[in-house]
UniProtKB/TrEMBL annotation, chain A:
Role, per record: Plays a role in pre-mRNA splicing as component of the U4/U6-U5 tri-snRNP complex that is involved in spliceosome assembly, and as component of the precatalytic spliceosome (spliceosome B complex). The heptameric LSM2-8 complex binds specifically to the 3'-terminal U-tract of U6 snRNA. Plays role in pre-mRNA splicing as component of the U4/U6-U5 tri-snRNP complex that is involved in spliceosome assembly, and as component of the precatalytic spliceosome (spliceosome B complex). The heptameric LSM2-8 complex binds specifically to the 3'-terminal U-tract of U6 snRNA.
Protein name as it appears in the record: U6 snRNA-associated Sm-like protein LSm8
Protein keywords: Acetylation, mRNA processing, mRNA splicing, Nucleus, Ribonucleoprotein, RNA-binding, Spliceosome
SMART domains for this protein: Sm
Organism: Tagetes erecta (African marigold)
Primary location: nucleus
Gene, per the UniProt record: LSM8
Domain annotation Sm: ranges: 1-82
Description of how the protein assembles with itself and partners: LSm subunits form a heteromer with a doughnut shape.
TrEMBL record, chain B:
Biological process according to GO: mRNA splicing, via spliceosome
Subcellular location: Nucleus
Top-rank taxon: Eukaryota
Assigned keywords, A-Z: mRNA processing, mRNA splicing, Nucleus, Ribonucleoprotein, RNA-binding, Spliceosome
Matches recorded under Gene3D superfamilies: 2.30.30.100
First-listed, main subcellular location of the protein, grouped into a coarse class: nucleus
CDD domains, sorted: LSm2
The name this protein goes by in its record: Sm-like protein LSM2
Keyword Flavoprotein: no
Organism name: Tagetes erecta
Length: 102, 93
């Protein structure tokens, strides 16, 4: 690592109630962060995928324990659970996120 | 290291990060690292109607490799300072 460089850690997210991950192919996976490394590989527990579509509300697919390779991760966000509970996902209509084109 | 130092000076400022999937996220720059990974606080998606996917996310980590643009505050750029720093970097530090 170059001198003076820092690496942002995800420590503050670990074992926090829920995090939301957006992958390079545009999928949105929500779960509990159990661990990560310097390549942003992550382990999620009790995870599910939220599938957005314009035809129907958000579908939630159970994935449970999941490891995501860092290469494939775009965004990791802390989910505000109160806010999340107040959203009516069955009413949410949206195009799925586009894949990231590098 | 020029851009890394440059972004470090912008910590605490409000920026908009546009990603390679057209999603734009606005928030306060919390930290940045040598990969130009970015952490934002008090985030909101610019077009929430089109992208409701992150409505309940208030702070996030963005992988540097997926960033297309970072829109800076207008007074966030000291051009003269950047000129000097660029010349210094080009000369090899």
């Amino acid at each position: 690592m170059p001198l003076g460089a820092t690496t942002i850690t995800l420590t503050i997210y670990v074992n926090l109630e829920l995090i939301s991950v957006i992958t390079n192919d545009g999928r949105n996976i929500v779960g509990i962060l159990k661990g990560f490394d310097q390549a942003t590989n992550i382990i999620l527990d009790e995870s599910h995928e939220r599938v957005y579509s314009t035809k129907e509300g958000v579908q939630q697919l159970v994935l449970d324990l999941y490891i995501i390779r860092g290469d494939n991760i775009s965004i990791i966000g802390e989910l505000d659970e109160e806010l999340d509970a107040s959203l009516d996902l069955s009413e949410a209509r949206a195009h799925p996120l586009k894949p990231f084109i590098h | 290291m020029l851009f890394f130092s440059y972004f470090k000076d912008l910590v605490g400022r409000e920026v908009t990060v546009e990603l390679k999937n057209d999603l734009a996220i606005r928030g306060t720059l919390h930290s940045v690292d040598q990969y130009l990974n970015i952490k934002l606080e008090n985030t909101r998606v610019v077009d929430q109607d089109k992208f409701p996917h992150m409505l309940s996310v208030r702070n996030c980590f963005i992988r540097g490799s997926v960033v297309r643009y970072v829109q800076l505050p207008p007074d966030g750029v000291d051009v003269d300072l950047l000129h000097d720093a660029t010349r210094r970097e080009a000369r090899g530090g």
